[in-house]
Design brief:
Elements (H helix, E strand, L loop, with lengths): L2 E4 L1 H14 L4 H16 L10 H9 L10 E3 L6 E5 L6 H18 L1 E10 L5 H8 L4 E5 L21 E5 L7 E5 L6 H10 L8 E2 L5 E2 L2 H5 L3 E2 L5 H17 L5 H8 L7 E9 L9 H14 L7 H13 L1 E4 H11 L9
Parallel strand pairs: 3-4
Antiparallel strand pairs: 1-12, 2-3, 4-11, 5-6, 5-11, 6-7, 8-9, 8-10
The structure holds NADPH dihydro-nicotinamide-adenine-dinucleotide phosphate (NDP).
């Protein structure tokens, strides 16, 4: 069906309306709707309206309350801030925590924000990009549910553990990457199963720990593999150590255990670190950064987020494309008809 084009504000208002119809208060609905609207605007569809069903289901199942305000612990004499999301989705805690984190990074040179006890289905780039747009470097990471086996291992242990990094460039397009540490997103394996297609080599193992090209065997009792073999495995381990052990929250395996097979949103923590690029006295960091990024582009290589920024520029002129079918469904959901699948 033909796409309809919405402005960012139109899409955000619509999604916030659906979330409020699903029981989220205005503050949570607005914050979650911003993360989804940004993903739709930048053509990162895996984290756009596709995630509404999971967010609504989590509230319906009583996992999220939808009304709990984040509880902030922000000691003035330490470069750390802790926010208890009180079991809610992360965006509202993140929205409230990022300004505190940025202020501390400027004061101390480096600072960390732990969001504890949150539900997480979002992409991480909006957070690190927002910090880089304020002139700060940033790293964000979180566990998820256990879907990935360690390299050389035989069963799932890690989450798909995303890692995002951003660095200011002096213009409105900071250097940003954001990806899962699994060889491929879990949703992709699901698509191979639906299409009855064999998986490429090296994506997963079956329940006996044997390499498998069978999507169903990988999803049902088997495991995905980390990207880059032992290197991705080590990065996934680091994320479990920093964004679970260090901040006092759940490992991916513990999040899965708490879910008990219900398939709801993972519940764990998230770590965001912000860095003042001038902390070591580098006065020319923007020029130096541009030398590096220009050298990458001059070879014909593309920078991460280049595709995303191009999609955003297109959305600014022509609007954000939504299929007429999905738009009609969203309008019905806004009126309280919530049990609808979007695609
Ligand atoms: P991809 O493998 O698609 O990689 C995405 C990153 O790599 C983007 O920064 C992208 O830039 C960049 N990139 C892609 N192709 C190239 C290329 N040819 N040259 C240079 N850079 C490139 O992402 P994933 O599927 O691993 O992850 C997608 C999203 O899922 C992430 O946003 C992540 O945060 C999220 N996620 C969230 C989880 C959670 O529990 N909350 C769990 C796992 C993932 P561009 O955008 O411009 O294409």
């Amino acid at each position: 069906m033909t796409d309809t084009y919405l402005t960012y504000d139109e899409l955000h208002t619509l999604l916030a309306g659906v979330l409020q119809a699903g029981g989220y208060n205005a503050a949570h609905a607005a914050a979650i709707a911003h993360t989804m609207s940004k993903a739709e605007r930048d053509q990162c569809r895996s984290h756009g309206i596709y995630r509404l069903a999971g967010v609504l289901k989590s509230r319906h199942a009583g996992l999220a309350d939808g009304n709990n305000a984040p509880v902030i612990h922000d000691p003035a004499d330490k470069p750390i801030t802790k926010i208890d999301a009180c079991g809610e989705f992360a965006p509202l805690a993140s929205e409230q925590g990022l300004p505190l984190l940025a202020a501390k990074a400027r004061r101390y040179g480096i600072a960390a924000l732990a969001i504890n006890n949150c539900l997480h289905l979002a992409a991480l780039w909006p957070e690190v990009e927002a910090l880089a747009n304020q002139g700060l470097g940033a790293l964000a990471m979180c566990p998820s549910n256990a879907y990935v086996a360690p390299a050389g291992g035989i069963r799932k242990l890690f989450g798909t553990n995303p890692l995002a990094f951003a660095w200011p460039t002096g213009d409105s397009r900071p250097y940003v990457f954001d990806f899962a540490t699994s060889v491929i997103a879990r949703g992709e394996i699901e698509l191979y199963r639906l299409d009855n297609k064999p998986l490429p080599d090296g994506w997963g193992i079956d329940r006996d720990g044997q390499p498998s090209n069978d999507a169903a065997a990988v999803l049902d009792g088997g495991a995905l593999l980390p990207f880059g073999g032992y290197k991705g495995s080590a990065i996934a381990t680091m994320i479990e150590l920093l964004a679970a052990v260090w901040i006092g929250d759940l490992l991916s395996s513990e999040s899965s255990e708490a879910d008990g097979g219900r398939g709801l949103a993972p519940r764990h923590g998230e770590l965001i670190i912000a860095i003042d690029p001038t902390a070591f006295g580098a006065a020319d960091h923007e020029i130096h950064t541009r030398v590096l990024l220009d050298a990458i582009r001059d070879q014909g290589a593309r920078l991460p987020s280049q595709r995303r920024y191009a999609a955003r520029a297109a959305a600014a002129t022509q609007g954000i494309p939504i299929s007429a079918d999905n738009l009609a469904k969203l309008r019905r959901m806004e009126k309280g008809e919530l049990d609808i699948e979007l695609h």
